[in-house]
Amino acid sequence: MSKYIFELEMKVRTYECDLQGIVNHANYLHYLEHTRHEFLDTLNISIAELHDKGIDPVIARANLAFKTPLTSGDYYISKLYIKKEGIKYAFHQDIFRKSDNKLVIRAVVESVCIVNGKLAHNSLFDEAFAPFLENHE
Fold it and tell me: What is the maximum alpha-carbon separation in the chain?
């Protein structure tokens, strides 16, 4: 059984590559963020609506290990699973090149919640993520 709870297929766009013809390292942060947002969409959680209510999930730390570069036109699969660590959620995210299933990047992105300007616990995420956490703790 896979540890991943969500996956998203995407394609590298030419403008995301640098002079060496590989995806610029900064773009992987966008890929990872897009995957997390799409995952939240499947749970009917809107970052914009949360912000309007004074609730802002923010990134506290990101640890990325680059393994294999992607190039223009490559299709890739971005996968994630979640762990709760105290007040933060750790999104374990891996990206694989679709053509050969080679690991491209392994990342752990830690998120905390700011509520009305202060670091705080938010039960919305506990409830939304509960079914997924039971499988990985």
Answer: 45
Burial class (CB in 10 A: 0-12, 13-18, 19+), 7: middle
Which residue carries 């890929």 as its tokens?
A: 31
List active site positions.
Answer: 18
Cα-based distances in Å from 13 to 16, 60, 106: 6, 28, 20
Average pLDDT over residues 23-37: 97
* pTM for this prediction: 0.93
Nearest in space to 32 (alpha carbons), one of 67, 3, 8: 8
- Distance, in Å, from the CA atom of 125 to the CA atom of 113, rounded to the nearest integer, reads 9
CA-closest candidate to residue 92, choices 113, 70, 64? 64
pLDDT in tens, 58-101: 999 999 999 999 999 999 999 999 999 999 999 999 999 999 99
- CA–CA gap between residue 71 and residue 84 (Å, rounded): 33
Count Cβ atoms below 10 Å from residue 82 Cβ, excluding itself. 21
Domains and CATH numbers, the chain: 6-133 (3.10.129.10)
